[in-house]
C-alpha cells in the first residue's frame, strides 16, 4: 500500500511551525508496513488544498491530511474536502451538543458560534472521535481505491485519533503480516560523503536486491545511516536489518557510536556509569556548552563533578593555575594550554577525567591565530579502563582546524570533546580510524588532527 501525508497550514510554509506530525505518522505507518511515498505541505487556501489532495489521491491508496479542522476562518480542510468530492457540508447535532457540553463543563458560558464549525463535516464522511480535544477527525472514501483520513494539526489530538481510530484499520488493510523496520546507526567524526563512499560496495549490492536498503542523513554535525527492511514478520525484518547492521559497522569502524535514540551525550553517560568514572570540564571557547551537554542526560549528577568557564586569558592562570609564563609565551590558544586546563579541571574537582577546550570561534582572528583553530584536551589516569594503558599516556590533545560560523565551530568542538571521552572509556584510539586515510574530526567543518598523543 502507498500512503501520502498532506500537511495543511500556512504556518508550515512560513516556518513558524515544524512539521513534526509527518515524522511521527511516517514512523507509525512504517511499523505496519505501509510505505509513505510523499509528504506535502500546503497553505490555507481551498483551491490549493483541493488540488494537492486530488493529486495525492491519484498517486496513493491512503492520504492522511493534518490540520485545518479547527474553529477559525482559516481552518478550511472541511470545505476543501467537500469541494474535492462535490458534496455538501452537514452539521452533526450530536457533535454540536458535545461541543456545547464540553465548554459548559469547563466553566465557559461564552460559547462562540465559530466553535460549531467543528460539528460540520462533508456529507458521506465518517466522524472519528477525538478524546484529547474538540475537533474530530474524518474518514472519506475517494473513488474505489483511496481513503482520506483528515486529522487535527494539534499533535496530541492527531496522535489520539490516529492511535484510537486509524492505526488498526490501516494495519488490517495492509495485512498484519507486513512489517517495515528501520534502524539508524549514528556516526561522529566522519563526513556524509565518506560514509557513503565507505559503504558504496554494500549499497550497490543491496540496490541489486531492493530489500533491505540503506540511506544517509547528515544531521546536527553527524551522519546517520538508516537501514530499512520489509518482511512478513518483525523477526524476519529484524534479521535482515541485523545482517546489514553487522556489515556496515565492520566497514565504518569506531566512528559508529550508537543506534536509533542514542545521542553522543547518552552514550558517554552510559560509559561513565559502567566505568564508575567522573568527569570535570574547563572551557574557554565553548563557554559552558560542554558542561551543559554532559548534564543534559539523566543520571549525570553521579558522573559530572563540575566545571569552570575561564574565558579570559588571566582567568586561566588565576582560576586554574595555568602557567603565566606559558600563557605569555604561547597565548591562550595552544595545545599545551589546553592540556594544562584539562589536568587542572581533573585535579581540582577530583574527577577521573578532565576535559578542556580553547580556541578561536570568530568572527575575527585572535592574536594572529586563525578562526577555527581549536584545541581539545582530555586528562585522565593511565590504564583507567579495564586495566588498559591509554594510548600515549594520561593526556590526549587534539588540534582541529574548523570552518563555519561561530555557532558551528563551538558545537563541533563539543562533539569532539564528548567523542574523546567515549573513546578513552571504550579503549579506542584518540581519533577516528576508518578504511580511508582521510582525517576529518567533524562533518561540520574540515578538521586536521595534528596531535593525538601525550602532551
Q: Which CATH architecture of the largest domain would you pick?
A: 3-Layer(aba) Sandwich
Shape: elongated
The count of strands amounts to 17
Question: What is the CA-atom radius of gyration, in angstroms?
Answer: 28 Å
Provide the helix percentage.
25-40%
The residue-averaged pLDDT reads 88
CATH topology term of the largest domain: Molybdenum Cofactor Biosythetic Enzyme, Chain A
Instruction: Write out the strand line-up for the largest beta sheet, numbering strands in chain order.
Output: 2-1-3-8-7-6
Under CATH, the homologous superfamily of the largest domain reads MoaB/Mog-like domain
Determine and state the CATH class of the largest domain.
Alpha Beta
Sequence stretches where pLDDT stays below 50 over 5 or more residues: 385-392, 436-455
Largest sheet report: 6 strands, mixed
N-to-C CA distance: 60 Å
Strand content: 15-25%
The chain-level structural class is alpha/beta
Total separate domains? 3
Treating each run of at least 4 consecutive H or I residues as one helix, how many helices? 15
| Oligomeric state as shown | single chain
Task: Describe the structure concisely.
The protein is built from 15 helices and 17 strands.
Amino acid at each position: 500500500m502507498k500512503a501520502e501525508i498532506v500537511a495543511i497550514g500556512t504556518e508550515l510554509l512560513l516556518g513558524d511551525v515544524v512539521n513534526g506530525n509527518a515524522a511521527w505518522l511516517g514512523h507509525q505507518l512504517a511499523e505496519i508496513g505501509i510505505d509513505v511515498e510523499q509528504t506535502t505541505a500546503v497553505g490555507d487556501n481551498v483551491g490549493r488544498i483541493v488540488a494537492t489532495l486530488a493529486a495525492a489521491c491519484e498517486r496513493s491508496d491512503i492520504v492522511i491530511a493534518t490540520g485545518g479542522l479547527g474553529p477559525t476562518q482559516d481552518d478550511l480542510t472541511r470545505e476543501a474536502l467537500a469541494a474535492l468530492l462535490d458534496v455538501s457540508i452537514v452539521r452533526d447535532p450530536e457533535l454540536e451538543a458535545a461541543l456545547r457540553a464540553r465548554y459548559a463543563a469547563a466553566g465557559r458560558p461564552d460559547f462562540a458560534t465559530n466553535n460549531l464549525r467543528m460539528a460540520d463535516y462533508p456529507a458521506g464522511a465518517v466522524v472519528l472521535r477525538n478524546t484529547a480535544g474538540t475537533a474530530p477527525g474524518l474518514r472519506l472514501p475517494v473513488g474505489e481505491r483511496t481513503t482520506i483520513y483528515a486529522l487535527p494539526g494539534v499533535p496530541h489530538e492527531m496522535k489520539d485519533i490516529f492511535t484510537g481510530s486509524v492505526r488498526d484499520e490501516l494495519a488490517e488493510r495492509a495485512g498484519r503480516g507486513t512489517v517495515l523496520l528501520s534502524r539508524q546507526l549514528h556516526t561522529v567524526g566522519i563526513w556524509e560523503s565518506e560514509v557513503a563512499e565507505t559503504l558504496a560496495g554494500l549499497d550497490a549490492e543491496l540496490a541489486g536486491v531492493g530489500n533491505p536498503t540503506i540511506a544517509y542523513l547528515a544531521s546536527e554535525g553527524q551522519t546517520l545511516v538508516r537501514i530499512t527492511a520489509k518482511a512478513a514478520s518483525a523477526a524476519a525484518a529484524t534479521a535482515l536489518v541485523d545482517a546489514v547492521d553487522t556489515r556496515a559497522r565492520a566497514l565504518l569502524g569506531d566512528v559508529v557510536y550508537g543506534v536509533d535514540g542514542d545521542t553522543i551525550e547518552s552514550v558517554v553517560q552510559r560509559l561513565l556509569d559502567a566505568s564508575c568514572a567522573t568527569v570535570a570540564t574547563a572551557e574557554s571557547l565553548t563557554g559552558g556548552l560542554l558542561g551543559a551537554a554532559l548534564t543534559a542526560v539523566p543520571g549525570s549528577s553521579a558522573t559530572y563533578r563540575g566545571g569552570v568557564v575561564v574565558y579570559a586569558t588571566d582567568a586561566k592562570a588565576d582560576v586554574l593555575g595555568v602557567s603565566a609564563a606559558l600563557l605569555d609565551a604561547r597565548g591562550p590558544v595552544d595545545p599545551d594550554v589546553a592540556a594544562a586546563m584539562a589536568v587542572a579541571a581533573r585535579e581540582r574537582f577530583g574527577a577521573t577525567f578532565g576535559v578542556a577546550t580553547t580556541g578561536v570561534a570568530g568572527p575575527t582572528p585572535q592574536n594572529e591565530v586563525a578562526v577555527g583553530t581549536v584545541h581539545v584536551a582530555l586528562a585522565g589516569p593511565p590504564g583507567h579502563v579495564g586495566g588498559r594503558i591509554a594510548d600515549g599516556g594520561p593526556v590526549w590533545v587534539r588540534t582541529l582546524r574548523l570552518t563555519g560560523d561561530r555557532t558551528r565551530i563551538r558545537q563541533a568542538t563539543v562533539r569532539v570533546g564528548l567523542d574523546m571521552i567515549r573513546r578513552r572509556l571504550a579503549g579506542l584510539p584518540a581519533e577516528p580510524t576508518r578504511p580511508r586515510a582521510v582525517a576529518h574530526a567533524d562533518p561540520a567543518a574540515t578538521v586536521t588532527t595534528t596531535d593525538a598523543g601525550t602532551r
